[in-house]
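Appendix B: complex inputs.
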Amino acid sequence: MALKLEVTNVSKRYVSKSKDRTIQALSDITFAVEEGKILGIVGESGCGKSTLSRIIAGLESPDTGTVQVTGKPHPVISKYVLKNRQRTVQLVFQDPYSSLNPRQPIYKAIDEVVAIYQPALTGSERDERVSDLLGRVGISRDMSNRYAHQFSGGQRQRICIARSLAANPEILLLDEPVSALDVSVRADIINLLLELKSQFNLTYIFVSHDLEIVKHVSDDIMVMNAGKIVEKGSWNEVMENPQDQYTKTLIEAMPKLSRRE
Amino acid sequence: MSLLRVSNLTVETSLDGKTLVDDVSFSIEKGESVGIVGESGSGKSLSALSILSLLPNGVRKRSGTVEFQGQEIAAENLQNIRGNRISMVYQDPMTSLNPMMKIGRQIEEVLEAHDLGKDSARTLAALESVRIPEPEKCANSYPHEFSGGMRQRVMIAIALLLKPDLLIADEPTTALDVTIQRQILNLVNEQKRANNASILWISHDLGVVAEMVDKVIVMYAGRIVEVGTVAEIFENPRHPYTVGLIGSLIKRKHQQKMISIPGTPPKPWTVTGQCGFADRCSRVLPNCTQQKPELVELGRQSFACFNPFEGGLI
Ligand SMILES: Nc1ncnc2c1ncn2[C@@H]1O[C@H](COP(=O)(O)OP(=O)(O)OP(=O)(O)O)[C@@H](O)[C@H]1O
Ligand code: SF4
Ligand SMILES: [Mg+2]
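Resulting structure:
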């Protein structure tokens, strides 16, 4: 299978606010994801998973190392590129509340992305495309003139997903996509994501602190601690036969629900 | 006689009388651990805060009583019970720690408030009991000098200082990393055993609740929909909401569709004269939209449903 994403020797260091310390956010991160697979990235706060997400999405550049998508270097987005170029990596964030513009009907939020990425479409083709995208995530066309605040958290996350899909991405980078949602709504969104992955032939990077969810969705799991990869492997290897001490501690710490099976 | 009995508690907004918690009743026995699970807005915190009359501004109790060891908790005995017999730990320790006061001093204040005098040995022992390394140094520091996990330990030390009969913990580990959460869970269990205390543990995380308690109360849209032992709730849930929740967690096959509940929970006050789960329920009957199902007891399990699941998780 072809490699969709290759991250090679990526390091990133920040200078602390008081400028007296440097923080090694990422040290020498190397991994690859095959096309059509789901890589789960787990770790606790401060382990570097969000920095890594931003670098993969091209929102930040690494100090050293490279990110390649389908064998081509993935450049950091300048404002110009953001508006005019097809983005193969799209980010979906944890908080569907803050990622939608409150003053804009959600139809518009999708429509403007379609307009950027498919400028050749006629008005009615564009309308069809917006309706189709909304339909795929289970939002009906007649709800689409409402504003973000008129939707529930789960619906807003669906809208954010539709908007990401409007850019025709090849990779979706899901950064804690269900952590902010009601418990009874999470399964619904996970089901939707798994469905969309095969419909759109996508590759996922699924970042989460929740080992249970990562275990369910991932083909491969990568465990991070203090800016380093401490373990990676297929989901069942990592979960059932962890090699690294930190991975073991993390699995041991999980509330024992999954052990009731 | 139960240690704590909450009867027909209803909480509403002060401004316009919107129902937030609807007719909630439950009891906790001496030494028993009880969990309340439910999603955001289901009324878990308001139910817990009502016990010690700690409801926030903007909401008030419309009706209901709380009895502690057979005696109604009222203005006269509240001060004696609060902190002393029943204490509380919150999700964010900074809501109850004073940021301007050294930790040791804060512990002494609690002791002084209960006429136990300034007792530095006891203060250090309390910090030691929650395994704070270097308790002297901790006593001499301000809350902001500590991580979230350490602050939560301090809170637990304060909550357990007077060996209360009941500890109410409202999502005390939700904001913490899993490995830190694990330490706090172990710590509370240890302390609970040492003091034979009862616990009311509130969480939206069923895994945590399953581990911490004997009996689970499931809340949905301001009402209790099911009560049972951990084993009953996990192996033989009866209410369709509980079945959906538990099903999505334990009946899953790798990358296969999870059991899910369509739609979203309603605001408690919009549910009148019908089952609050009706528009998400796969087992809905005509009755369900014409009447409120009451909590009925069947053996040691109770549920509020006209058409419950029978026997075993689907
Ligand atoms: N001070 C307040 N004024 C008005 N409404 C309130 C107030 N506090 C809570 N509510 C409302 O009461 C309902 C129940 O809230 P409660 O805090 O008990 O929920 P919860 O189950 O603890 O949720 P969470 O999991 O988010 O903590 C919610 O609809 C909430 O918006
Ligand atoms: S009462 Fe009716 S609608 Fe409500 S949970 Fe039971 S079957 Fe479903
Ligand atoms: Mg709460």
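Residues B 239-240, 275, 277-278, 281, 283-285, 288, 293, 305-307 surround iron/sulfur cluster (ligand 2) (CB under 6 Å).
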